[in-house]
Write a structure and sequence with these properties.
Length: about 375
């Protein structure tokens, strides 16, 4: 049968693997001109580890994972060190959980795509008409095609979700934060550390592929065109303007540079949908059930949902409505569990008040003392 997937990232590449492996003809359309680079290290955890094992890529993911960083200083708004952060203190779901850069995982997923999958970059779906004979799809370049299933794996601002299920505001809930990332230029030395003031965390990280700047800012929803990069840069600059210490002025310059590599900005949001299936159209990954960056579960859910969708659809003879109950039963409880993690991550990553910030830093200091004493 013919399957069209919109989006070539974690969810779309995983879906292409599974549908092709189960014998279907797969076409992937991706708006960018290749796999979109950038992003901080992401987690492959819980049920995604078994999915990765079945995809035959777990060993490679493990080989290329981020090795634990040395402890990093935690700074206050003046740049003075107030605590230390060692990521080993934060227990994972299982001992096997891995953290890997987004670019490396993208490449590994791409290498696991069976022969015969057609990729169309700089391409996008313009219209979807679902009927008895399948889904008639019009593409942005004017071409058309007919598919038995259309899978929206096109992220938080999903195009397929908008075309088949309705406007974004019905499904996407702002989780109170914005995130920005950028590769930092090599013209100076960057000190790895994390600086927090209430509602704002700014960090320099290096996962082995060069220093990267991160901003996590608490903010009510801001109206802007999420495709307008100049508007994004202006917003970041405004959010960072609260701090003038440490390396923040240099980071502001890096974020403001239109030529900077690895630039990424988005709201930290969740997608909540009563059903991820409508007729012969399904949405997976962030498009259907974004758990918000603060959960650390987005990639896991993207990989797991792709596998379950391909299996249930194939088992039900390509009848999506028939597969729907089994699909939701296998995925819904896990999505709820993963989305709940975001509420736990927020006060640690971006404490909202001075009191919460001091509490968090005291917790880091207590962990450091215990670790120094017992090594655990
Ligand atoms: C550049 C980038 C950096 C990221 N950095 C981080 C990070 O640091 N930490 C983190 O937790 N998460 C990050 N994410 C999000 C993370 O990848 C996802 O939360 C998670 O992996 C789920 O993946 P997904 O495939 O559902 O969505 P995404 O990874 O968002 O992928 C969606 C894909 O769909 C494509 N697309 C969008 N619209 C269209 C369209 N109209 N037609 C065709 N294709 C389209 C996009 O170009 C993208 O390739 C980042 C995403 C991107 C795109």
């Amino acid at each position: 049968m013919d399957v069209l997937i919109s989006g070539a990232s974690m969810a779309g590449l995983s879906a292409a693997h599974w549908f092709a492996r189960l014998g279907h003809r797969v076409t992937v359309v991706e708006r960018a001109d290749g796999l979109r680079p950038g992003g901080a290290p992401i987690d492959v955890r819980g049920r995604a580890l078994a999915t990765a094992r079945r995809m035959g890529i777990l060993a490679r993911i493990d080989d290329e994972k981020v090795r634990f960083f040395d402890p990093a200083p935690v700074l206050d708004g003046t740049g003075a060190q107030v605590a230390t952060l060692d990521l080993r203190w934060f227990a994972n779901e299982t001992d096997e959980d891995v953290e890997i850069t987004r670019d490396r995982l993208n490449r590994i997923l791409m290498s696991a795509i069976p022969d015969g999958v057609e990729f169309r970059f700089k391409a996008s779906i313009a219209s979807i008409a679902d009927g008895a004979g399948g889904v008639e799809v019009g593409f942005a370049d004017g071409s058309q095609g007919r598919y038995d299933l259309v899978v929206g794996a096109d992220g938080l601002h999903s195009n397929v979700r908008r075309l088949a299920f309705g406007p974004e505001k019905e499904y996407v809930r702002h989780f109170g934060h914005y995130v920005a990332l950028v590769d930092l230029p090599a013209d100076r030395h960057w000190h790895r550390a994390m600086l927090s003031v209430p509602g704002l965390t700014i960090a320099v990280r290096d996962a082995g592929d060069g220093p990267q700047g991160l901003m996590l800012a608490a903010s009510p929803e801001i109206g802007y065109d999420y495709r307008d990069l100049d508007a994004q840069r202006a917003l970041i600059d405004r959010l960072l303007s609260r701090v003038d210490a440490w390396q923040v002025p240099a980071m502001r310059a890096a974020f403001a540079d239109p030529a900077a590599k690895g630039f990424y900005f988005d709201s930290v949001s969740q997608t909540h949908m009563p059903s991820w299936i409508r007729g012969n159209v399904a949405v997976i990954g962030d498009a259907g059930h974004c758990a918000a960056l603060l959960s650390g579960m987005g990639t896991t859910l993207a990989m797991v949902s792709a596998e379950i969708l391909a299996n249930t659809w194939t088992e039900h003879g390509g009848r999506m409505e028939a597969a729907s109950a089994a699909y939701h039963a296998q995925l819904r409880p896990y999505v709820a569990q993963c989305q709940a993690f975001a509420a736990e991550g927020a006060p640690i990553m971006v404490p909202p008040t001075q009191e919460a910030l001091e509490e968090r830093n005291a917790m880091f200091r207590a962990y450091a003392a215990r670790f120094a004493e017992t090594g655990a």
